[in-house]
């Protein structure tokens, strides 16, 4: 493999690694659940993208063309927002406390229940 | 807005194309046998599963859909950089907030795409879509639905709502023509 290609692959791996690290730092550092969620949902997508791009380049240049990583990227992009949505929905359901300066707490809708279910019992 | 597919044997053309490509990527080959099997799966699976799904509006402007995907991809990259800066910066300066965005979209598929986009883009995570229409009695008028989002660092609420509506919701309305 050419020397400069190794640099390119190393660059992508390092870029991806540092974004994943920043996402984890956000998870540990933020004061409440809702703010913790922002790091892992976003910083990690680009991080994984970088690592997978490095992986595609490395394996395609050393042997057969490898495209499985593309699938991983697609599925990650589809599933990451959904798991974040379910986590934050569960947190709202359990009425987890947000830090005091959070604005717009009155925008959270009250719990919804099926009225017709209650009547039929 | 259109719900009915053009051909009955091809209920979801774009899903079929996706399945075809995913199968080839999984096997990493373009041999004739794999191509045939991919074609069979791409036609059979949407046919068999279409009856389990609620009819959703079809993508009527595929070119706009591709442009929307590229826009979101670019926004994901800037979102990552912005969130990284916010995470590493001082915690005291962050102004978290819950914001609700009025939705013009009415159907589940476009709303899901909008909510996922909001989650992937700068400093926002979608939290809830309410009221839940499965809880509304049939025949009752459709209420205004809201998308509740959590913002990591809010500077201007009105501007944020306007930018989401204009940047992401307007193209989705055009793609699905609803």
Descriptive notes:
The complex is a heterodimer of chains A (121) and B (178). By secondary structure, chain A is an all-alpha fold. Chain A has one domain (3-98). Chain A is built from five helices and no strands. Chain A is elongated and about 60 Å long. Residues 116-121 of chain A have low confidence and may be disordered. With 178 residues, chain B is mainly α. Chain B has two domains: 13-52; 62-176, Alpha-Beta Plaits, CATH 3.30.70. Chain B has five helices and three strands, in the order αααβαββα. A three-stranded antiparallel beta sheet of chain B has the order 1-3-2. Chain B is globular and about 60 Å long. The mean pLDDT of chain B is 86. Chains A and B meet through α1, α3 and α4 of A and α1, α3, β1, α4 and β2 of B.
Shape of chain A: elongated
CATH class of the largest domain in chain B: Alpha Beta
Helix/strand structural class of chain B? mainly alpha
Count of runs of 4 or more consecutive helical residues of chain B: 5
Residue share in helix of chain B? 40-55%
Oligomer: heterodimer
Question: Which structural class fits the helix and strand makeup of chain A?
Answer: mainly alpha
Compute the number of helices of chain A. 5
The major beta sheet of chain A can be summarized as:
none
Present the secondary structure layout:
The complex is a heterodimer of chains A (about 120) and B (about 180).
Chain A (H helix, E strand, L loop, with lengths): L2 H27 L3 H4 L1 H25 L5 H26 L21 H6 L1
Chain B lengths: L12 H15 L4 H18 L12 H27 L8 E6 L5 H13 L3 E7 L15 E6 L5 H20 L2
Antiparallel strand pairs in B: 1-3, 2-3
Helix pairs in contact in B: 1-2, 3-5, 4-5
Describe the structure using short key phrases.
heterodimer; A: 121 residues; mainly alpha; 5 helices; disordered C terminus; B: 178 residues; Alpha-Beta Plaits; three-stranded antiparallel sheet; 3 strands; 11% strand; globular
């Amino acid at each position: 493999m050419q020397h400069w290609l190794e640099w390119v692959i190393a660059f992508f791996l390092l870029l991806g690694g540092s974004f994943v690290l920043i996402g984890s730092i956000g998870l540990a550092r933020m004061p409440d659940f809702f703010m913790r969620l922002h790091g892992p949902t976003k910083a990690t997508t680009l991080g994984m993208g970088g690592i997978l791009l490095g992986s595609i380049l490395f394996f395609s240049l050393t042997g057969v063309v490898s495209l499985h990583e593309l699938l991983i990227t697609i599925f990650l992009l589809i599933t990451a927002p959904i798991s974040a949505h379910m986590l934050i929905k569960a947190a709202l359901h359990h009425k987890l406390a947000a830090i005091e300066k959070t604005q717009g707490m009155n925008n959270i809708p009250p719990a919804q229940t099926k009225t017709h279910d209650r009547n039929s019992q | 807005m259109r719900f009915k597919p053009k051909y009955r044997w091809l209920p979801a053309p774009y899903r079929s194309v996706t399945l075809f490509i995913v199968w080839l990527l999984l096997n990493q080959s373009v041999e004739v046998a794999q191509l045939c099997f991919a074609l069979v799966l791409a036609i059979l699976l949407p046919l068999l599963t279409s009856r389990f799904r609620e009819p959703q509006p079809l993508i009527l402007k595929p070119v706009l859909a591709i442009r929307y995907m590229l826009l979101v991809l670019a926004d994901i990259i800037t979102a990552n950089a912005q969130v990284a800066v916010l995470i590493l910066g001082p915690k005291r300066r962050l102004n978290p907030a819950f914001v609700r965005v009025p939705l013009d979209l009415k159907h589940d598929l476009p709303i899901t795409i909008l909510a996922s986009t909001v989650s992937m883009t700068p400093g926002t995570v979608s939290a809830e879509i309410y009221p839940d229409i499965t809880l509304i009695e049939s025949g009752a008028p459709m209420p205004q639905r809201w998308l509740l989002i959590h913002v990591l660092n809010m500077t201007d609420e009105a501007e944020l709502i306007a930018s989401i509506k204009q940047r992401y919701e307007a193209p989705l309305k055009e793609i699905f023509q609803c």
